[in-house]
Amino acid sequence: MPKGVKCLVEECVYYAHEACVAESIEVRSNGNDIVGTDKGTLCATFSYRDFDDGHVRHQQSAPQ
């Protein structure tokens, strides 16, 4: 991952001290017609890190 890809989503398996450590990322429109703001995009690389049981649930983001 190139330097400078900041991530603040601690619940993601690729989160490491405010950085994204995924080999690549995919960012897409979430389909709500407001792509002109940050609310109109999402990270499709996101995979949920379950802090409760120590297991990782691979659940990618999906447009709502």
Write the topology of this structure.
Elements: E1 27-29, E2 41-43
Antiparallel strand pairs: 1-2
Proportion in β-strands: 5-15%
The average pLDDT is: 77
The radius of gyration is 13 Å
Euclidean distance between termini CA atoms = 27 Å
Textual characterization of the structure:
There is one protein chain. This protein has 64 residues and is low in regular secondary structure. 0% of the residues lie in helices and 9% in strands. It has no helices and 2 strands. The protein has a two-stranded antiparallel ribbon. The chain is globular and about 30 Å long. It starts with 26 loop residues before the first strand and ends in a 21-residue tail after the last strand.
